[in-house]
Every structure is written in structure tokens, then in C-alpha cells.
């Protein structure tokens, strides 16, 4: 259904009623994460994992987004968001919306998950419920392992309230001097950075199961062990009360790049500041904490009532990640290891430059030279594809240069080692290391220094722009000619996240892509005002205009009597200009499907505005991270993949690259992926016009189809098929 062009022209698509709030939409996303922890269909330990993810997500959200809103409020910012809210209104609504979720998370853990764990021999016990024998053991453990680490900090006129570091778990302790009867306050930091959060008991002291056998694991929260042995810290005093609390602070890096003489040194200084954090933004306390302690903490941390979250249960549930190490495979998702891509199944082992006898099999360059290759992680092995590509390039005699971008990489990175080996083998190696990758700055500084010491040319990116694109360029000399091999991906060059995130990567040796990446690296490492590229869509140079142009092209096809069709998969859809163009496309009759994992500010299903737009979010065992853009284009279909979400920062303030898919087999593979996601009835949530998300379930007689299980089955089937 469409409306007249006159009505469309008179409609103000900037009206706030057509937009969802970015921060509240993120909260909706984290609520969908929490649902995985609540859903009994999710294996039990995976439910604990999703509980931890929910908490970890909230920590980062407060450290960056809520902290930013509070700064705006303090600065007197009155500018409205596209949905018509002030910073103060957003903070108030976030607080109201979040409290029921935090309560739901805590109650689910305390009353459901902990109880179900007992059925499998896992007992997380409160200290007050321990036997005397168990208490005696923990008293000895405290004296030997915990007591030497602790530092009680008194608060009195000569010793002011201590600085509470970011994300720290603490104990507020009240003691009484038996001589003066004066009540005194002290703070103890719970050392979860050097001791386990949950102290396990030895086999002989574990809880007994119904069958009389000892449980698999019995443990006690570290803070409770400390709280019940405080006398050792305050000899001669009477311990009156003890209350756990947790503080979150502003931890975003604020940097004036233009004023920094050395970007690396400037960011190192900002990291040092982050370790303790800036202004406090959230206080978590036990609901039973007395008002006088609560008030004192609020005053000393300069927080308001809306910043305080009272919880009936353990604080800091992100520490539940540790339970994933329990040997209970039946309570976890079935293990999955990425499979070797069929096209790479006959690759020979990597030879060193000194080997005189080549091994049987193809080299990776001949495979890519034959035709483009699409890899889909974690269904395809990252190590057997991307890492092998870079490692073989590092050792290949004919490779002359390797250039790549590094936004986030793993702690023990085979890719870093390969780049170092390449430099040692005399190749030209360039690594663009993005020092401003949030919460990975310190890792990237360490990698940058290690690479530089090995002779790699390290570049830190462009002032004012983050380099977020995921690209590799390998230059190889073959039969008196230069050939360029590329990898263009949607995800980071990180072997650990490649097992958890779904991402796509294209291997190609097309001349135009190789030339484009050459120009793009020159733009990143030298001085260039390159404005056009042969194939790539590059931000902030041309991507926004090209994307808008392709949306408008679909509208023109409809106006000319044809059909219009757009399918987009991104992590976030925030950009107001893109949203307005999608609204115009819907009004023009273009059928639009959006697969948006996280934030979505577009309001679908509004009559006369967006009734032709459908939005789903897929949440499951893997984090959906790939970005795909499909345009029907009057039958001359186009598909692109790349690193950019549809947010202002990606289109205007980051270097991003999106590549067209021109190989027909690869094109079909991506179409199949999109089709599977759009028909998902297990992991997909549909966004309604009122902002609520509704989880899909199989209809009567319909088979359950979840995206991740379906794609794993396809990968297994293809792995058994000869290339």
C-alpha cells in the first residue's frame, strides 16, 4: 500500500514520533539478551553466561552512554534527540525502565538458576548456611590467602572517604570502639582482580547430594568470606555491620587528538586515568543496606537517588562467566569448532622460505585466483582461512608486501606473529593499529610496540577518525607480473571472537578490488584526498552518498512500474538521514526487511510511513556481527558486505569499507544466509510499531528453524562435499 506523492511531500519525516530513542533501544536489546537467561530452552550454564553478558553489557553502557548523558546534563545541553528527548529525560526513563530488568535478573539467578544448579551437584552457598567444619576451613583459607591482600581504609576527620575504583566490589563496614562506644566507618575493597570471586571448598567438605555422594562443586562468594572474618582486620573493635556495594564510573576516553604531540603517549595517559575512572555514575547496594550507609555513600560519590540500584542478591553477576569452566557438557550448547572451508580443504602446509621440497596440495593464492571465496565465521574456521592466508603470505617467497588494519585482536595473536615473521623475512609489512578501539586501547598499544620493534611499519590512523575497516592486502610477484590478493571482512582479526561472533569475509584477487585497497591504504598511511573508488564504498568519503543513492534507486524502480526490494543486516540502525530515506522508500512501495541485532531507531509498520518495512533482531549462541546490504535494482541485484553499521559515527567519523559481491556463487551464498535469517522462528524477535519486540515461535505444523543451528548444519553438510 502506498500513499499519494502529495501526501508524502507534505509529511515531516523529521517528526520525533517516527523515531525510537537510541539509548532505550539499546536497553531493549539487552532485555533480549536477558531473555536467553530466562528461557528454559537455553541450557542451564548458558543461562548463567547470558546473565553475565547482561551485567557486562550494562557496565559498559553506564561507563560510556549513561556517563555521556550525565555530562550533557551537567553542561546544560538542551538539544533534543531525533525522538524528542533531553539528556535529563533520557536518564530518568533509563532509570525507570532498567530497575525491573535488574530485579528480574537478580531474582532469576537467586531463585531459579541457583536452585537448578543444585540438581547437577553445583552448590553456591551463602556463608550463613555453612557447617562449622566448612567455616573452619574458610577461616584458615582467609588467614592464609585473603587476609594478607586486604587493606581496610578508615574514614574519619584525618582520613577522608577513599577513592572507590571503577567496577570495584567493596564492603562498607561499621565497627564500634568498646572503650568510647563510638561507631566508626571503614571501607574494604574485595580483591576480585587477584582472587577468585567464588571460593571453592575441597572435595571432602562439599555439600552432599540426595544420593549421598559429594557434590561436583561447592563454593562461597569471596565477599561473604571476608565479611564473616572481619575481626582479624579490626582487632579490639566490635564489628557492628557490613554491607557490600559496587561502583561504576565514567570510563570513556576523552582525547583532543589535534593537541596531542604523540597519540600513543596521550592514549596511554588516558588509560591510566580509566583504571580508576572519573565521576561515579552508578551505585549498586544490597536492598537491606541501612539508610544512613546508603546516604553516606551517595554523598561521598556525588550520586542521586536515581543512580542507586538496590538488589536482593549478589552484586556483580558478570563474574558468573567462571561457571562455564565446570565439566558439565550436558548443560552447555553442543561444542562447535569452525570447519575448514571446502575450497581450502586441499591447501598444502606452510613452507618456510628455505624449504626446497614443496608439499603436495594447492597454495592459498591459487585457490583465490581461481575464483572469489566467501568465509562465514564461526561456521568456517578462522585459523584455517584468515590466519592461514596471512601466515602463508608471511612465508611465501613471492609475496612482496602485506598491509592490514587491526582494530581488535586476540591476546596471543597468530596474526601478529605472522606479521612479525613477514617483516623478518624481508617483506614490506604495514599494520594500521587503531589505538582508539574502545576498551582495547592498551592491547593495541602493546601490539603496536611489538610490531614496530620487529620492523613492521606501524600507523595509528587519521586524526579525528577511527579506522574500523577490516582489510588485508597482499602483493605478490607472479610470472613477471604483480598480483594483489585481498581479504575484506565484517569482523575483527581476532581468533577468539571469531568463535563467538558471526562474520563474513571475502577473499579475492580482482584487479579493481586490489587497486581500491591500494588507494585506501595510501589514504590511511600517507596524504591523499581520494574521493572515488572503483568498487568499494568508503566512509567517510563516499559511502553515505552511495547508500542513499541505492535506496533512491529502488524508489525510482517502483515509480517506473517495477518493484523495489531492500534487505539490510546491521548491528545498529541509528542514522536519521538513512532512516528518512528508508521511510521514503517504504512510501514509494519498496519492500524492506531489516535485520538489526541491537539498536534500531526506525519505527516500522506505521501506516503511510513505514508499513512496508519489517524489522527483526536475532539473538542466540553467537553474536550476530556481519553487515550485509542487498538491493534488487530492477533485477540487476547487488549485494555488499563490510564493516559499517548505519550509524553517524560509521558513516561520518570512521574509516569503513564495504565491498560489492560480484561472484555469482558467493552471491547465492549470501542470499541463502539472508533467507535463513528472515525465516527464523526460534531466535528472531519482531519489532512492532509501538517499540515492543515479540519473539517468534513456530506456528502449528511449522518446524522450528533457528539461524545458528541451520547454518551449522549447512556447514557440516558442505564440509563432507568434495570441493
Percent of residues in β-strands: 15-25%
**Count of alpha/pi helices:** 18
State the CATH superfamily name of the largest domain. Polyphosphate kinase middle domain
Q: Structural class, from helix and strand content? A: alpha/beta
Rg, nearest Å: 28 Å
Shape: globular
Distance between the termini: 46 Å
Counted beta strands: 27
Q: What CATH architecture of the largest domain do you see? A: 2-Layer Sandwich
CATH class of the largest domain, named Alpha Beta
Largest sheet: 10 strands, mixed
- Overall tally of structural domains: 3
* CATH fold-type name of the largest domain: polyphosphate kinase like
Mean pLDDT: 90
Residue share in helices? Answer: 25-40%
Uncertain spans:
255-261, 352-360
Explain how this protein is built.
Helix 2 runs antiparallel to helix 3 (44-74), helix 2 runs parallel beside helix 4 (87-118) and helix 3 runs antiparallel to helix 4. This protein is an alpha/beta fold and 723 residues long. It starts with a helix and ends with a helix. It has 3 domains: 45-60 and 80-263 and 277-323, polyphosphate kinase like; 342-352 and 360-525, Endonuclease, Chain A (2-Layer Sandwich), CATH 3.30.870.10; 537-719, Endonuclease Chain A (Endonuclease, Chain A). It is built from 18 helices and 27 strands. Strand 26 (684-687) and strand 27 form a beta hairpin.
